[in-house]
Amino acid sequence: MTIARVAIIGLGLLGGSIGLATKARGLPIATTGWDRDASVRQRAAARGLVDQVCERAEDAVAEADLVILCVPVGAMGDAARAIAPGLAPHAIISDVGSSKEAVAEALAQALPGATIIPAHPVAGTEQSGPEAGFATLFAGRWCIITPPDGADPAAIAALSDFWTQLGSKVELMDAAHHDLVLAVTSHIPHLIAYTIVGTASDLEDVTQSEVIKYSAGGFRDFTRIAASDPVMWRDVFLTNKGAVLEMLGRFTEDLTALQRAIRSGDGDTLFDLFTRTRTIRRAVIEQGQDDERPDFGREHGE
Ligand code: NAP
Which residues are within 8 A (CB) of 257 and not within 5 positions of it... i.e. 6 or more apart? Predict the structure, then answer.
């Protein structure tokens, strides 16, 4: 199965980056794109995110071997219904959504009988929109593919190949397992950041100037995560409800244990945990998921 034409639906950060990476790596693949928003279509064309931006969804997918839905997870069903009339019978339908069980269900419902292979490139930033994409977003990052039971092995191989050519490392996983893993590594950390920044802003009457002024501490790094796209993250929590609530239960228990340790002056518990978490940071760096420059590599004046 050769992928010579790729249609990208949703021309924001992820969609734009797929188009730019395809071009920058010189892949022999023609790209088309569509977004429901006319202004996004215009800006995507101006930046050359894909070879051809189409005015209608069905035109964008008409000759595509692979269609990738790059819209918020809550909009996957709508986007799938919009492309349905134009799909070629052999087309592989995939996506980049951050939760996988709910998306697989929405796509299967909207496109009965189609070859659907959901995927999630674990790569992103807190920026969104057609100006946010860049060609190296996927380089060295994981792309998790979650094929449904009985999926065509040739289609899985073709999709894996595509992501490998964009520079990603590919892993196959069951959708439910993906949702549990990502709840811990991505969804709960975002929820914590939203909570901390939200709490600080609730206290703003008393502390507003101090919160901003002294935000060179840990708070500043939370504000970056908490600036992530509100639509995207609303949809992630609504569609990965089960896994997030399960992991949140565990997290709350651990938080309560720490609260108890602080109250009772149990320094050993605190020290042991903080030592264990340092090891995790080292492993993240060793596996190439971050580098070890202090303070995220920020330049500091003398
Ligand atoms: P984005 O920059 O906001 O782009 C999404 C685009 O899709 C927007 O232009 C949006 O238009 C458009 N859109 C929304 N509903 C649509 C529909 N029904 N039909 C066609 N276009 C539609 O978002 P993104 O960051 O690229 O995220 C896209 C997907 O990637 C999400 O499912 C997200 O979970 C996943 N993802 C994101 C990251 C990340 O860090 N950002 C990482 C990995 C995966 P409007 O502005 O008009 O709504």
Answer: 269
